[in-house]
């Protein structure tokens, strides 16, 4: 189904030159920007609690990646493995995407999107990339990479979800165990704390792959289900770094924590093979 014939999906604005879609059905309201294929917000109707944090200072005109919601990082996570001058987290979050289809069912509304191109400096794989966004009682985001070339390709990715918290210091992350790589301490390997509170800057790559993670908070506990990942990344910039970011309010760090389903070790796809990275937020 196309946008013109949809009951659930409407063009909310294109004032800034970027199309923002509003998705509303019996179960939830969500918003998406076609720049970056970027989910901006998701609020189930049964509790009216917004699950995603979007910065008040987020730039929505397509001139830079959007701060908040769910940035799509691809085809690398963090810095490029050999060319640090290239943009962090790849290039599709800085690109226009097109809406391929809409499917409306009783339980959910499903959108399929693709970036205008998957080729750019720093990646020479022949790949097809598709994002599926399912809006129902939960939000399910699935990123499918298909190798359409004749040679193997390797890629990294993340569904870089900014989870809303009224006061992040009151939150506890459950479900992570084992070791993590501390990006703030030269990649040193450290044990996951228990209980896992957010009380300072953190940039951690958890190398275990739990399917289920919970963000317990007094206002609205959230459940995250992941698949296709090799890591869970936990990130909060805290006070100093928030102040240094032009698209983040000074106290922005108090209102979110990123818990990202990520491929940080590189995933190799044989020709014709596909791989799916998925996160569900409830
Ligand atoms: C996290 C990275 O995933 O994203 C951090 O681990 C990074 O190192 C953060 O600072 C935010 O990245 P960006 O490019 O959106 O500011």
Describe this structure in words.
The protein has one domain: Distorted Sandwich (Beta-galactosidase, Chain A, domain 5). It contains one helix and 21 strands. A nine-stranded antiparallel β-sheet has the order 6-7-8-9-21-18-17-12-15, with no helix packed on it. Strands 5, 10, 11, 13, 14, 16, 19 and 20 form an eight-stranded antiparallel β-sheet that branches. A four-stranded antiparallel β-sheet has the order 1-2-3-4, with no helix packed on it. 6-O-phosphono-beta-D-glucopyranose binds next to strand 19. It holds the Pfam family Aldose_epim. InterPro entries: Aldose_1/G6P_1-epimerase (IPR008183), G6P_1-epimerase (IPR025532), Gal_mutarotase_sf_dom (IPR011013), GH-type_carb-bd (IPR014718).
Beginning-to-end CA distance, first to last residue: 26 Å
CA-based shape: globular
Query: What percent of residues are in strands?
Result: 35-45%
The computed structural class is mainly beta
Number of strands: 21
- Poorly predicted runs of 5 or more residues: none
The distinct ligands, each listed once, are:
6-O-phosphono-beta-D-glucopyranose
Q: What is CATH's topology name?
A: Beta-galactosidase, Chain A, domain 5
CATH class reads Mainly Beta
- Domains, number: 1
Radius of gyration: 18 Å
Largest sheet: 9 strands, antiparallel
Order of helices and strands: EEEEEEEEEEEEEEEEEEEHEE
Family: Belongs to the glucose-6-phosphate 1-epimerase family.
EC number: 5.1.3.15
GO biological process, one term: carbohydrate metabolic process
Catalytic activity: alpha-D-glucose 6-phosphate = beta-D-glucose 6-phosphate
